[in-house]
């Protein structure tokens, strides 16, 4: 037994401290004994159906607690954990069925109809499909069998052991797959290993002196590899994993109060969410006395961000900037933010490599750069991922021989470019290709363009990121076509792109502007976006006070000057992150709670104003239902 494999360490903690709280979720407390027993049931269930090492087990679940249990159980079973997201669409499902071909699927019953709809388009049939319910702290399983395209439910009538499974897992064994954006129009599936994940989790535990007192708040989606650190950092150290409700995650003001109530000591998040937390309290800001560490990754972090946080909350929280990639097995560099010497607009460094890791900045891919010399960034460590699952071509392109050595050594080509500063900190300057970051999610513009051009009536397409690394950042798609309307193309994109990849603005051009070299004039396209957002056309004026106030909030959140009551939030540059900020502003202005689905279903000013009016009227007519508005009104 490899004593550093994470689920073995978790088992030891569960044995030593069985009654200690492992998970806190919406008032529900799960002990280490309960969590270990239920994850063991998952492992024994998979093994009962002959799911073995190197078999892939896909997870399509809605409940965060069951997701956590399934993750640990799949690791214990020796199979490969592969989480799915409800925002995934056709390209992701195509990769699942055509390339990954999992042997098992764990699914919530509420997702079955969606799964069956996608499955009907592919020849591959997942052999083992198990639906899961969770009632009164008890797991209820049912198995689905597919016969000629029809799925029939059968009860699982076996008694599942709660004992630790006797399955030997080695450090080099594969343990997870996560999708990441690809340049071919399809996502790439990164394959991880137990030892590489363990290396990072142990590094973070040591670097930040993690103990059984740690309480980690999980804001990351389970479909991102960063979720692994949220789960395992507390659970191998005897701490508590705190899972907020979806309502809390979607409301920054509620999230701030939740962080205090749960006495969170360590939080991983993206700078975009960090900025939302800063703006969530309108008046006097309370401190976070228990929050020891705030670890930020996924986007550029600026000096002005730190200044704003310290002005609001003081210096008792250590802020750390992190850098890495799914392919490198999470984070591979870090920078503890201390004294601030730069300008407010300066980007903070990615910093120094973690243990057993080097960040190589190479000039022309052949020699190491000197201080302030710009080059391509490579990651050197024995703890890289295993590459892209069943994709030797892409793996060979990104996992390359170290040009500084004669003997064989594989390093990872990040696609970023940057420089060393005088202290040998790595400064990230940007992407070498069309890969961009939006709200912490890596998005490949080439992939989106490939999907759009797939529409037969689209002639040309160009995607850009407008005002990157700002709160006004949004994805924009320009295209030419003689017949396809902007709304038709948006509907088409929703069938091929995930929610994260669908452009906020889709704009049809008669022809593309070109520069003196005959190439697409990107600054010209940016000017077009600015004209769209500034509203050069006549706007319909508000008809009541709610519409008037809501328009003011939209201007603030979207960073634009003109909004009419018939304007669409997302067509003006709105995003999921901006929607969260709008939710917070609506709560402060109207004392009404709405959720993110409200904005997606009612994205037009006058529609959302009607929803707010209805909720406010209900609250005034019956104060006892103030806290139940979201349950009694379909918003």
Distance linking N and C termini? 52 Å
CA gyration radius, whole angstroms? 25 Å
Beta content comes to: 15-25%
CATH arch. level architecture of the domain at 6-243: 3-Layer(aba) Sandwich
Low-confidence stretches: 623-635
Biggest beta-sheet profile: 9 strands, mixed
CATH topology of the domain at 6-243: Rossmann fold
Task: State the name of the first-level CATH class of the domain at 6-243.
Answer: Alpha Beta
Adjacency order of strands in the biggest sheet: 2-1-12-11-13-14-15-16-17
Number of strands: 28
Question: How much helix is in the residues?
Answer: 25-40%
Structural class based on helices, strands and sheet pairing: alpha/beta
CATH superfamily of the domain at 6-243: ANL, N-terminal domain
pLDDT average, as an integer?
87
Question: Gist?
Answer:
The protein is of the alpha/beta class and 635 residues long.
């Amino acid at each position: 037994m490899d004593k550093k494999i994470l689920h073995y360490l978790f088992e030891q903690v569960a044995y030593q401290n069985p009654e200690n709280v492992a998970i806190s979720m919406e008032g529900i407390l799960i002990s280490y004994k309960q969590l270990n027993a239920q994850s063991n049931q998952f492992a024994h269930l998979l093994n009962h159906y002959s799911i073995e090492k190197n078999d892939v087990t896909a997870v399509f679940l809605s409940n965060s607690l069951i997701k956590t249990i399934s993750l640990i159980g799949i690791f214990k079973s020796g199979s490969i954990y592969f989480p799915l997201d409800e925002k995934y669409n056709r390209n992701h499902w195509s990769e699942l069925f055509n390339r990954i071909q999992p042997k098992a699927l764990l699914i919530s019953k509420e997702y079955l109809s969606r799964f069956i709809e996608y499955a009907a388009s592919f020849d591959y049939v997942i052999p083992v499909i198990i639906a899961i319910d969770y009632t009164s702290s008890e797991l209820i399983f049912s198995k689905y069998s597919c016969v000629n395209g029809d799925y029939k439910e059968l009860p699982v009538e076996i008694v599942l052991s709660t004992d630790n499974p006797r399955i030997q897992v080695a450090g080099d064994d594969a343990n997870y797959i996560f999708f990441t954006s690809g340049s071919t129009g399809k996502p790439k599936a990164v394959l991880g290993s137990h030892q590489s994940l363990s290396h990072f989790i142990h590094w973070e535990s040591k670097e930040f002196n993690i103990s059984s007192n740690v309480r980690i708040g999980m804001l990351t989606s389970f479909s991102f590899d960063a979720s692994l650190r949220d789960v395992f950092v507390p659970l191998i150290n005897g701490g508590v994993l705190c899972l907020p409700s979806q309502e809390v995650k979607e409301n920054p003001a509620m999230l701030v109060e939740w962080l205090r109530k749960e006495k969170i000591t360590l939080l991983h998040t993206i700078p975009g969410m960090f900025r939302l937390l800063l703006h969530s309290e309108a008046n006097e800001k309370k401190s976070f006395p228990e929050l020891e560490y705030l670890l930020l990754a996924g986007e550029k972090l600026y000096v002005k961000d730190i200044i704003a946080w310290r002005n609001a909350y003081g210096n008792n929280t250590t802020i750390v900037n992190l850098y890495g990639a799914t392919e490198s097995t999470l984070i591979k560099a870090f920078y503890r933010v201390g004294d601030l010497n730069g300008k407010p607009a300066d980007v903070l460094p990615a910093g120094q490599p973690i243990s057993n890791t080097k960040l190589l900045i190479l000039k022309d891919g052949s020699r190491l750069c000197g201080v302030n010399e710009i080059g391509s960034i490579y990651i050197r460590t024995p703890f890289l991922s295993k590459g892209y699952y069943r994709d030797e071509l892409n793996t060979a392109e990104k996992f390359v021989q170290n040009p500084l050595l004669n003997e064989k050594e594989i390093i990872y080509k990040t696609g970023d470019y940057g420089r060393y500063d005088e202290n040998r900190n790595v400064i990230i300057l940007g992407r070498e290709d069309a890969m961009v970051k939006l709200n912490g999610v890596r998005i490949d513009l080439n992939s989106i363009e490939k999907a759009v051009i797939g529409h037969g009536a689209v002639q040309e397409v160009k995607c850009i990121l407008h005002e990157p690394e700002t709160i006004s950042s949004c994805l924009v798609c320009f295209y030419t076509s003689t017949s396809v309307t902007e709304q038709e193309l948006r509907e088409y994109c929703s069938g091929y792109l995930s929610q994260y990849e669908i452009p906020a603005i889709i704009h049809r051009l008669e022809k593309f502007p070109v520069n003196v070299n005959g190439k697409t004039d990107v600054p010209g396209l940016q000017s077009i976006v600015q004209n769209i957002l500034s509203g050069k056309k006549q706007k319909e004026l508000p008809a009541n006070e709610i519409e008037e106030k809501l328009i003011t909030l939209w201007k603030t959140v979207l960073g634009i000057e003109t909004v009419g009551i018939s304007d669409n939030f997302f067509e003006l540059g709105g995003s999921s992150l901006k929607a969260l900020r709008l939710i917070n502003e609506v709560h402060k202005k109207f004392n009404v709670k709405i959720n993110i689905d409200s904005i997606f279903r009612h994205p037009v000013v006058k529609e959302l104003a009607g929803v707010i009016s209805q909720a406010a009227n209900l609250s005034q007519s019956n104060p006892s239902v103030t806290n139940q508005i979201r349950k009694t009104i379909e918003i």
